[in-house]
């Protein structure tokens, strides 16, 4: 789906933050290590994977945030290796990287946030990572996050950056993740930095609400991973204090922008699909129905084939297990009715690269938007041959 | 996967049953209507889809079984049209077919079992079905179920029949379903007939236990449908009474045979995958873990590509949400260790059309077997263009 949209990466870096990227040799080629540094302690809120086997950096960072009282000075992230399912050795490797960065950055290891993405079950080359840290610290700058965004890519085909500005405070967000994406934030990393002044409870609250309506509202293939992380850092360097609602609103914008970019880059995808669920008993149930549709391979292959097979939509809705008052369900592609409508016209409209499916349930006032992509032969090709 | 196994259909028909098939014009060509008739009332136990929008025949048959006290004289099943999402008209069409058959078979409509499979949301051509009933009743015979098995096929590439005999009593089972298969019995129909003498509580109990370890232990694509039905009819014509355990054991064999045939015919599949889960806290949790692996597109594409990407297995196990005592998980392809093993050897073994994956969890004595298939480009092609 390259070229479908302009995937701009040209957003201003919030004050007090510096970024860097390096080719540390973890991947065979290209940037694979990124650093974000704050010149003062930043308030940190994070959400992690719910997978029962979280990767070593996830386990370590949960501890670090507790120990440091949710304060972070620097973030180190590598692609090419997930450091997951590596047992005690994986934990030791993650700790070693954090200690190395802490000693150079002049902070405690607990103020370091470590993140990894890539293949599961291979030893993390901590030597290569530690060797690259001095260079990262020397070359970091506050001009652009473009190279950082590239360093965290795996099967992504374009870097994912989003930004916002509100009354002099800036928000800048990065994300990676193209497959293995599902509501529980599968192999998805997102790092968001802001120079707004926000205290921890407001930051944490804003993050949780935003993630529900962004990263938790997308699906590429229904799989979830061991490494998912969303981190937001607020260092207050702008001196601007926003109302919690104003900050949360802007954070949601950035998160939704990033989440949609992940879907647009869905492995093998040819279409971006927006599901608008209306008239559910509650917003949460609307979102649940949207997610159930978004993970149906039959719906996703039908959309790929421009096949207005609305029976599969009904079937997917029925599988969500949400009790509905009305037996009547109205389905639309844009404004074209699907059930009882002109299916030839609907099929033509489905040829677009952006497909809006509206589901009207007549069972309440709950609404949700969920984003997904089609399922194609190319997804199979990409994933049938990843490690070997 | 044709030719991979001999999919024999040559099993003896239990006493007192007759079968027939016809090309009623519901599909564009070929057999699309099947009849099973018992010369005396048969005890009936059934399980249906858990989809919130069950098809008209499912709603009707639930009522019929209640009204008749679980007694069935004849079963009428069509392929090519699911009679789902058709509202009141769909119910009327199903009722009309049942009434027509009842009047010719000389029983009450409540003793008729109706079933449909095919495209959702298109009016059922009840005229064509009713017109074909007299011919079905005239041509039915007790020689073979081969034509009946063919009449219920949709995207199936071969008819699915299984049989067993125990101390003079026969069991004969039919199934259809190739995509949309997941533990909740998605677009899957199975009809099993026996001339053993079994009362309703034993029949119902044996069916529920067998389905858990057969049709509920397979997955093709994780999608579930509006029409799933498993029906077992026992007419007692052999005069043979079996112990409940002996009957249940044979029924399980027939159900597992049919369930595996469905997986072998998985849409676009090139490999039959058996997942053997050992050392889970309980059998049920072992089955749940097996099902979670079986619905992971990343695992299924890796197996398609003969890629021993065991990290995806670990990840899928972690997504099952089952608390495990041990952090150690041992994974094998046959007897070749995957984590810490010779991955080249494992990849070579994966070239086989039958792949056994063993998961040893070291967290208890719970075991399960789950069957699935790989996910291929061909699955996408079949499903991107089904209705149009």
CATH class of the largest domain in chain A: Alpha Beta
Strand content of chain A: 25-35%
Q: What summary fits the major beta sheet of chain A? A: 8 strands, mixed
First-residue to last-residue Cα separation of chain A: 25 Å
| Rg calc of chain A | 21 Å
Q: Quaternary status of these chains?
A: homodimer
Query: Do you know the CATH topology of the largest domain in chain A?
Result: L-amino peptidase D-ALA esterase/amidase
Helix content of chain A: 25-40%
The CATH architecture term of the largest domain in chain A is: 4-Layer Sandwich
Mean pLDDT of chain A: 90
CATH superfamily of the largest domain in chain A: L-amino peptidase D-ALA esterase/amidase
Number of domains of chain A: 2
| Shape estimate of chain A | globular
| Class from helix and strand fractions of chain A | alpha/beta
Question: Largest interface: which pair?
Answer: A-B, 63 and 63 residues
